[in-house]
């Protein structure tokens, strides 16, 4: 399912900014307050405030408009194993009711919760305010609830990336070897504000009849920048090559006629989400009926403003003694002197993605009695439709004879030290100054390339529609020792897409669809009269249906011990844009991404058998074996392709044949009694996964599935305080599939540790300090061999100090 994010009303960024010494003072004050005398028992004061979209990991920032992969290790939850997606669930787990978090309003209620907070990230060294307000009030049969939350953050993320080029070098090896072609050293900054406003109204028509309306308004704004230094070893002439002990990696080399690309961008994002749900429910002792309707509109507007400058004709060298941060050097050039970095191109791109969703639901269940035993029967029908529309205008401006250099646009910026102080990054461009310079010198120093602008704009134009219609039947029964549940769901999926393709005129592109003969660029209609390519809109259609059974059986061996077996099927449909026929070429990045119109949905058959031991009131131990059979799994394919003599990385999503995931799941929950602590609870979950996936020509691990996944939660609480610790670890996993095993991208082990401490002054006032990503363990990946690192990212730890008032 698509996870929602919290955002808020747009407006200018607050001018107030706090410095690090203030948060230190605030933390010191909070610690001093902990020494106050004992207060009444700490009550549960936390409320579900929604996800903080301003503090998403870099990995999640790239997935905000994506469906989640249910077999990926990072989405396996900390819970007892053997949960079943029954017939009442969409096969992907999609249920529009899950987008709304407010509970059913209670009669005679009156409540208020007010929170103010300060947010801090270690690299940005800025403190940014936020807060939330929750209100509830009943008026007889009518109950109203309202919630508003403002999240904000300033963050820096440091990143090393690389492209490794496969090449033939007979003097070194009979097999292909890999050159560190394009190492990149970057710092990203994010200045983000989001506000999530939600409301709910419940009207009790009768004692057993309820009418509900829920709404959610989300608004999100961020300003992201990037300062990147890229050594383009892959374009030069090589000498003095040394081969590493793995036999496939060039560990050091000298390069003549090399280049340095200094890349900068500013990305302005504005996202608006509006969701509405109207529901009617009849809830009686022997059954219930629910009717629901849903509407959602998600609009994401982005202005991506990338600049490229080059230092050319350089002598360079590299070595990978530190594989996580290889050393690249150039001679006869001071990297920190940017006066020789000449402007190459500016490619502003303006994109708007709009998702429009509708859904209808009818759900019914009834209790019947047969031979003195109660059986619950349920049935329902559901319909949902999502339409995505993506519009884009990209303008490509190249250098003219009137050249300028980077030192004219650095402003007051300074050089930075990144990646935990390990790498000095030269001064970056002041992108705000660049916008003004572009406006003032547009006619003399920026020459628009209408052909490339036309081509790159069409590559991002597409629509995609997915409609799912389903009907299901479900039954369950609780006996003295037995519990069983069985269901059957029929789903029909229909997709329609429209995307743009392009190619040389001899490819007869116009014969494949609707010719694109003109396009608006800079407010002017530009006719397609270019000799190098033709472009056309091509439509695609697909339709499929699945019958999805589910079954669960439990047997109580004793009052504490029960056995459980379960079986259910799931689908994972393609992303809304992956089935669009498109081809997107990015010359500065030397990358190509394209659609896969023939993608089939992934089907997953889930089997589970295990034991659940419930001892006393505060202990549970569950363990079981599972087997998931997977067909038509998705994987991210990255291959290479020469375009005009230049090697490009080509990425697309493809279907594998089939595969499996099997292993062990275990879960332990235990409550403890400790001196001076009234409550201590521990949760521990572990998943072992043995997996295999079949491609057309070889076997791989199941993409995104780690062999080991461990999660631990510890909660300690007393009369007036609560401490929570969340820890998770997973072993390496396959991310992207290359042309061969040597080019597969492997994600290294992931480690995360979050902590929070809450103190309650009295029954109305409390404070909370939480720290996320405390270890700042880098997100790392490598290609084939560990010596070929392609990613080394440090996202920094963040802290939030809150003061909370409840009434």
From TrEMBL:
Question: What is the first-listed, main subcellular location in coarse terms?
Answer: membrane
Pfam families xrefs: OMP_b-brl_3
Q: Which InterPro entries does this UniProt record tie to the protein?
A: Beta-barrel_TonB_sf, OMP_b-brl_3
Respond yes or no to whether keyword Signal is given for this record: yes
- Recite the UniProt keywords alphabetically: Cell outer membrane, Membrane, Signal
Q: Where is the signal peptide?
A: 1-43
Highest taxon listed in the record's lineage: Bacteria
> Is Membrane there in the keyword field?
yes
**Boundaries of each Outer membrane protein beta-barrel domain copy?**
384-792
Q: Where in the cell is it found?
A: Cell outer membrane
Protein name listed in UniProt: Outer membrane beta-barrel protein
């Amino acid at each position: 399912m698509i996870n929602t994010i919290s955002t808020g009303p747009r407006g200018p960024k607050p001018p107030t900014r706090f410095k690090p010494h203030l948060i230190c003072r605030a933390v010191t004050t909070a610690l001093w307050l902990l020494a106050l005398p004992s207060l009444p028992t700490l009550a549960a004061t936390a409320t579900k405030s929604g996800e903080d979209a301003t503090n998403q990991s870099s990995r999640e920032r790239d997935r905000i408009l994506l469906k989640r992969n249910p077999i990926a290790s990072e989405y396996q939850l900390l819970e007892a194993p053997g949960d079943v997606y029954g017939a009442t669930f969409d096969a992907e787990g999609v249920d529009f009711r899950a987008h709304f978090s407010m509970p059913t309003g209670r009669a005679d209620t009156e409540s208020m919760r007010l929170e103010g907070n300060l947010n801090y990230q270690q690299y940005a060294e800025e403190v940014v305010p936020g807060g939330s307000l929750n209100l509830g009030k009943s008026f007889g049969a009518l109950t109203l609830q309202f919630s508003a939350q403002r999240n904000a953050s300033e963050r820096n993320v440091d990143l090393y990336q690389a492209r490794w080029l496969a090449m033939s070098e007979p003097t070194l090896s009979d097999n292909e070897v890999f050159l560190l072609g394009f190492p990149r050293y970057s710092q990203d900054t994010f200045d983000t504000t989001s506000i999530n406003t939600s409301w709910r109204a419940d009207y009790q028509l009768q004692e057993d009849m309820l009418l509900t309306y829920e709404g959610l308004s989300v608004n999100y704004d961020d300003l992201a920048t990037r300062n990147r230094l890229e050594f383009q070893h892959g374009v030069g002439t090589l000498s003095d090559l040394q081969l590493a002990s793995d036999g496939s990696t060039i560990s050091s080399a000298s390069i003549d006629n090399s280049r340095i690309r200094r890349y900068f961008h500013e990305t302005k994002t504005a996202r608006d989400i509006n969701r509405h749900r109207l529901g009617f429910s009849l809830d009686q002792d022997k059954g219930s009926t629910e009717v629901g309707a849903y509407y959602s509109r998600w609009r994401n507007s982005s202005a991506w403003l990338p600049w490229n400058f080059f230092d050319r004709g350089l002598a360079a060298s590299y070595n990978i003694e530190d594989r996580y941060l290889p050393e690249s050097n150039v001679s006869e050039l001071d990297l920190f002197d940017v006066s020789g970095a000449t402007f190459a191109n500016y490619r502003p791109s303006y994109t708007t993605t709009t998702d429009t969703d509708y859904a209808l639901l009818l759900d019914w269940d009834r209790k019947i009695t047969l031979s003195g035993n109660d059986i619950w029967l349920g049935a329902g029908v559901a319909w949902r439709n999502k339409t995505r529309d993506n519009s884009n205008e990209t303008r490509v401006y190249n250098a003219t004879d009137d050249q300028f250099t980077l030192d004219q646009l650095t402003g007051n910026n300074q050089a930075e030290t990144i990646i935990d102080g390990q790498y000095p990054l030269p001064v970056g461009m002041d992108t705000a100054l660049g916008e003004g310079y572009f406006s003032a010198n547009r006619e003399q120093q920026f020459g628009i390339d209408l052909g490339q602008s036309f081509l790159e704009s069409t590559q991002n134009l597409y629509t995609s529609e997915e409609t799912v219609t389903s009907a299901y039947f479900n039954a369950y029964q609780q006996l003295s020792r037995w519990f069983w549940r069985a269901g059957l769901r029929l789903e029909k999926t229909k997709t329609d897409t429209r995307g743009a393709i392009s190619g040389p005129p001899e490819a007869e592109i116009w014969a494949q669809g609707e010719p694109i003969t003109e396009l608006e660029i800079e407010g002017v209609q530009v006719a397609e009269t270019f000799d190098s390519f033709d472009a056309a809109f091509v439509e695609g259609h697909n339709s499929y249906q699945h019958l999805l059974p589910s079954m669960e059986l439990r047997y109580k061996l004793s009052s504490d011990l029960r056995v459980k077996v379960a079986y259910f099927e799931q689908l994972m449909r393609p992303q809304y844009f992956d089935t669009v026929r498109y081809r997107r070429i990015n010359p500065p990045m030397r990358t190509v991404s394209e659609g896969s119109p023939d993608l089939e949905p992934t089907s997953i058959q889930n089997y589970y058998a295990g034991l659940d031991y419930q001892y006393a009131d505060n202990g549970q131990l569950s363990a079981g074996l599972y087997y998931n059979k997977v067909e038509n799994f998705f994987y991210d394919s990255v291959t290479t392709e020469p375009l005009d003599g230049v090697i490009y990385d080509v990425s697309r999503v493809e279907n594998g044949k089939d595969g499996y995931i099997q292993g062990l799941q275990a879960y332990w929950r235990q409550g403890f009694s400790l001196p001076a602590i009234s409550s201590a609870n521990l949760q521990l979950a572990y998943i072992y996964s043995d997996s295999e996936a079949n491609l057309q020509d070889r076997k791989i691990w199941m993409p995104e599935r780690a062999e080991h996944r461990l999660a631990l939660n510890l909660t300690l609480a007393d009369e007036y305080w609560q401490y929570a610790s969340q820890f998770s670890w997973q072993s390496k996993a396959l991310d992207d599939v290359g042309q061969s095993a040597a080019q597969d991208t492997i994600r290294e082990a992931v480690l995360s540790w979050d902590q929070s401490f809450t103190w309650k002054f009295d029954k109305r006032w409390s404070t909370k300090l939480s720290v996320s990503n405390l270890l700042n363990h880098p997100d790392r990946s490598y290609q084939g061999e560990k010596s070929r690192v392609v990613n080394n990212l440090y996202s920094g730890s963040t802290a939030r100090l809150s003061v909370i008032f409840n009434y």
